[in-house]
Amino acid sequence: EFLNGKFYSELGYQFVDYNFGGALNSLKQNIADISISWRIYKKLSSSLKFEETFENKTRYSRLNFQIIQRF
């Protein structure tokens, strides 16, 4: 939280190990993310999140943007 509580940030990491029933193989992923949120008004905010997923030989990236209006 910074700038008088108008901005928030998060940093995260997950390790996921998928085991598929009956199959001999599994899927391991390392997922890192960073996000920032901005409270524009009391009931209006927006956020931006970047997520990177790492597998054995593959990388995936996601970028999410949200606008949230509370009533």
Can you describe this structure in just a few lines?
Helices cover 0% and strands 72% of the residues. It has 71 residues and is mostly beta strands. The chain is elongated and about 50 Å long.
Round the Cα radius of gyration to an integer and report it: 17 Å
In oligomeric terms, what are we looking at? single chain
- Helix count? 0
- Sketch the topology as an H/E string, one letter per element: EEEE
* Structural classification: mainly beta
- Contiguous uncertain segments of 5+ residues: none
What characterizes the major β-sheet? Answer: 4 strands, antiparallel
Q: Quick one: how many beta strands?
A: 4
Helix content: under 10%
Strand content range: over 45%
- Summed over residues and divided by their number, the pLDDT gives a mean of 91
Specify the overall morphology: elongated
Distance between the termini: 23 Å
Q: If strands are numbered along the chain, what order do they take across the biggest sheet?
A: 1-2-3-4
Task: Describe what this molecule looks like in 3D.
The chain is mainly β. The chain is built from no helices and four strands. It has strands at residues 7-19, 26-41, 44-54, 59-69. A four-stranded antiparallel beta sheet has the order 1-2-3-4, with no helix packed on it. The two termini are 23 Å apart. The model has no long low-confidence stretch (mean pLDDT 91).
Features:
mainly beta, 0% helix, single chain, 71 residues
Topology diagram in text:
Blueprint: E1 7-19, E2 26-41, E3 44-54, E4 59-69
Antiparallel strand pairs: 1-2, 2-3, 3-4
